[in-house]
């Protein structure tokens, strides 16, 4: 950027969800992520033989959702919410758990506004948290 040029930041409403169990359906995905916000679209990608590729896309009604990877395995929604509340207005935080009841190491955080979500992304992306690097993002394909 030169001088006082401002870079436009596009905040999306879609998130990538990886490491899905092979049997996960689009409805399972949608139902789980409804805990985080109003889901308007969910899809599990499939190959030519109609087998799951193990990943999918979830689209929320608003861009206020934020995906956080690399959270400590011991964190619950409460620790995740408290951590992000340091810099932004957090409405809700959720940690994703596997069928075995163990944390998958990622979750979602919903903010009061897109501006607060952007501030949290800038403050936490790449930060070390109990020996794990946080990866905080909005889906760039929204």
UniProtKB/TrEMBL annotation:
Residue ranges of the RRM domain? 13-65, 64-141
Alphabetically sorted, this entry's keywords are: RNA-binding
UniProt keyword annotation of RNA-binding present: yes
Highest classification ranks of the organism: Eukaryota, Viridiplantae, Chlorophyta, core chlorophytes, Chlorophyceae
Question: Which PANTHER family would you find in this protein's record?
Answer: OS02G0815200 PROTEIN (PTHR48025), RRM DOMAIN-CONTAINING PROTEIN (PTHR48025:SF1)
Transmembrane listed as a keyword:
no
Q: Which InterPro entries match?
A: Euk_RNA-bind_prot, Nucleotide-bd_a/b_plait_sf, RBD_domain_sf, RRM_dom
Recorded protein name is RRM domain-containing protein
């Amino acid at each position: 950027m030169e001088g006082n040029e401002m870079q436009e930041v596009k905040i999306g409403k879609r998130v990538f969800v990886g490491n899905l169990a092979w049997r996960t359906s689009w409805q399972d995905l949608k139902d789980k992520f409804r805990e985080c916000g109003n889901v308007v679209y969910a899809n599990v990608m499939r190959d030519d033989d109609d087998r799951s590729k193990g990943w999918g896309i979830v689209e929320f009604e608003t861009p206020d959702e934020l995906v956080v990877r690399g959270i400590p395995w011991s964190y619950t929604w409460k620790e995740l919410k408290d951590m992000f509340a340091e810099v932004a207005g957090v409405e809700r935080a959720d940690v994703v758990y596997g069928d075995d009841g163990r944390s998958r190491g990622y979750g979602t955080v919903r903010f009061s506004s897109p501006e607060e979500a952007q501030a949290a992304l800038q403050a936490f992306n790449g930060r070390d948290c109990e020996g794990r690097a946080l990866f905080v993002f909005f889906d760039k394909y929204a």
